[in-house]
Amino acid sequence: MFIGHYGASFAAKRFAPKLSLGAYFLGAQLLDVFFSIFVMVGIEKMRIVPGFTQVNAYDLYFMPYTHSLVGSLAWSAAGAIAIFAITKKTPEAIAFGVVVFSHFVLDVPVHTPDLPIFTEDGAKIGFGLWKSWPASVLLELAVFGVGAAMYWKLVRPIGKKRSQLAIFLAVLSVLCVATPFLPPPSSPTSFAIQALFGYFVLAFFAARVDKPAAWLS
Ligand SMILES: [Zn+2]
């Protein structure tokens, strides 16, 4: 899941608005940010297998640190502690931790059974919705749409802000529908670079759209 994760970021603003949407965008992809870094340095592993599922070509065969149930809980706790240390705001820290963990929860329906509960040798889960791109895209759009609607109701944008947010949401929706049809990356390293670039660019624009909220106020 890619764009659907941002549904959690938008929704978080409703409960804890004093953290930038940009920070919540990074939070929703924190597990994938570290997965990408870990792939580049060889700590976690994937293969590019064209046609692996209808949605993408990723055979994610070793990611116990970022994408196990226990691992993602640990990253969520670490994320919440970091945000609390910086902002001293409990609701924002908790919301950030929940957003980080939502990544794992939303990955479960779409991934093939490649998400470990704890260790690589133990049980792995994943309901495999990626085998059908219409079902995957529908689920992503639904999660994204619910969060985005909550955010829209919260900020009630007018004038220039309204068109900025409308364009941002439209771009995210197009990305959501289009990504299954893009050619697969040539190697795990190029996957990681593209993914990191995408996550940071989208977080940057999310922060811009969300102004005047400060990043870590
Ligand atoms: Zn992921």
Global shape: globular
Bound molecules: zinc ion
User: Looking at the chains present, what oligomeric state does this protein adopt?
Assistant: single chain
Percent of residues in beta strands?
5-15%
- Residue ranges: pLDDT <50 for 5 or more in a row? none
- Count of DSSP strands: 4
Give the number of helices.
8
What strand line-up does the widest sheet have? 1-2
Q: How would you state the average pLDDT, rounded? A: 96
The helix-and-strand class reads mainly alpha
Q: How many angstroms does the end-to-end distance come to?
A: 29 Å
- How many distinct folded domains? 1
Which properties best describe this structure?
217 residues, single chain, 63% helix, 8 helices, mainly alpha, two-stranded antiparallel sheet, two-stranded antiparallel ribbon
Helices and strands in order, then pairings?
Blueprint: H1 6-15, H2 21-28, H3 30-41, E1 45-48, E2 58-62, H4 69-87, H5 90-110, E3 115-116, E4 124-125, H6 133-155, H7 159-178, H8 188-210
Antiparallel strand pairs: 1-2, 3-4
The structure holds zinc ion (ZN).
Residues 31-32, 67, 103, 107 line the site of zinc ion.
Can you give a write-up of this model?
- By secondary structure, the chain is mostly helical.
- It has one domain (3-209).
- Helices cover 63% and strands 6% of the residues.
- It has eight helices and four strands.
- Strands 1-2 form a two-stranded antiparallel ribbon. The chain has a two-stranded antiparallel ribbon with strand order 3-4.
- A hairpin with a 7-residue loop joins strand 3 and strand 4.
- It is globular.
- The model has no long low-confidence stretch (mean pLDDT 96).
- It binds zinc ion.
